[in-house]
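Structure ticket #2291
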Amino acid sequence: MIQRLKKRTARIGVFAVGHETYWGQFEGLLDSLMGYHEEFKNIVDKNEVEIIDFGMIDTSEASYKALNRIKESNVDILLCNMVTYAISATFAPIIRDANVPIILVALQPRKAMDYSKANTYMQLQNDNICAVPEFTSVAVRLGKEVNDVIIGTLYDDKEVEEDIKVWCDIAKVMHDLKGARIGLMGHVMEAMYDMHADPTAISGAFGVHVPLIEVDDVIKLYKKVDEERIHEKIKVIEENFHMPDPVSDPVTIKVTSEDLYQAAKTAVTLDDLVKEYNLTGLAYYYEGEENSLHRLVSSSFIVGNSLLNAQGVPMCGEFDIKTCIAMLIMDRLNIGGSFAEFHPFDFEEDFILVGHDGPHHIAIAEGMPVLRSLTKYHGKPGSGASVEFKIKEGPITMLGITQNDKGGFKFIIGEGISKKGPIPPTGNTNTRGFFEPTTKEFIKKWVMEGPTHHYALGIGHNGKVIEKIAKILDIECVIVK
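Resolution: structure written out below.
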């Protein structure tokens, strides 16, 4: 029932390439090829993106003119439509200076030519692959790289449509990383050395800005919240969470009216904070003096943050801005992005519990998420409402972002399976994660890569997609297997 605050979108640049000499030799060929180009744009358009069409580029001169328009358009990726053979001089200026991911797309209108009626005109209409090696060669010689080549047919090719969708999703990630405002509030939990990150390094690696938020900025907004909005938020919480009786954990009790009210008031405050500071996301941790308003408010973020995660605003605990970036990447891929860490193994059934005490991405919950009151937050000050659920059953992906000894960032990616089964009723998210070849062997390989203890958890097997994003960002990346 939770809707995104902002639609996922991107600016996709497209252009066709051809050989100008053909147009005078074969009447109608150019119009025919541009018709196919329109069909190609229809495939792209299915992905709810903005398309910027730079038309036919068939000479070196046309390429230089198009380059200026490409730079001005601020596109997130470029799709080069190989509608027929083209000389590499039509591509060289763009691959050299566009500074944007470029994908070559070679889609034949026909699955095969009718050889009994074949002619040169028909061949040129289906010569989509011919110049691809020439284009990739010139890219290498210029010290650049083509990010991908999509090969297939123009009509009814599900694999092609999926490949284009993947790149549109990647473009949505790149679109929202540009100038994103990932706030930092509070401080690192004492002695968590793996959590520290330099905001300048974050900005340099990901193209985001890191506004520094004071806890008092939250308190100021908290004091302005009116009762009507609190009760509206209580209704939203009641519609989206199940509130059962406690089970086996004495730390948990049925959600109290006081905790529900507090969670709702803080959730409204967080909505206002996001608007006030135009935040794309927030990483926070703050303790405050015992019995203070600062502690009361900062320890009651979990429910509001979980709602915001589902609305596309990654909210991350323990001041972990690196994982907040990972959550943003997963969210813009539309695969979730819950704040997670490893919990106990089950060596009998060969799985490990993956989860955290919040915040979570409730849009990827298996069934309705649970809300419980906790009489204490283990390892942290405070008490109150907390979120518990399993993520959807099926394939899952983990993305951890860490740093090496030189300060450079590193993506650590893993894929597993979420399976049905009971989880501890502790008011925390937990999912039964199964990994190959065995869970123990996988976890050993994971920890040996030097991750932080947190990561973003999403649905589907998306390691290869995230690896492409790392490559675009020029960030070290490993997929643990």
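Closing remark: The chain has a mean pLDDT of 96.
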